[in-house]
Design brief:
199 residues; 4-stranded antiparallel β-sheet
Length: 199
Amino acid sequence: MRLTLDISKEEFDSIVGADMEVTSTIFLDFPSDIRGVYEFELINSVVNIYDLKDQVKQQGIQIEDDSLFVFGKMKVRIEGVKGADFKFVEGDFHTGRNQYHTWPYTLNKGDVVCMCGGDLSFLSGYYASAIIVAEAKHKITLTFDTDEAVPIDIFNSDSVKKAHLKAMKYEHTSHSGKLFNRNFIQDYLASGRRVIRSE
């Protein structure tokens, strides 16, 4: 069952957190202008639902624990985005090489800052930290499939171990793909870019 939680009135990183033993993977988008609506996905994240139990019940779901370990993809949607700062660390988080990308913004009283991070989905060996600034009139929602989440008691080591067994291993690929393969292109594409036969 799909569950959508409105966390607009909550502090983002008190709801969406990383598990110290399992690193989240983050799937980011890089538009030329980040303002307005920004969406990204996470896998292997902890969602603290203690203050969101009414929303969970209203959607017909009964969960006794205060947190969920979402091992499947969780979509994060932030409306009212003003800008963001991203940091990418190649190698070790503390000693690796840092690179940055920013979408300019001006902070105003009442704006909110959303912080999260994880292993970068499309480059092996990179960790990404995202700090997204949204205006005072914003909306933040989390959407995920409850079949891809398990209740977790972060203060109970047995509960944490059981949740970790569900952690999704995201595999990076070094394969070039079909369309960088000259022989594949000759077999399936005409001299232009029209596919001439099915695989």
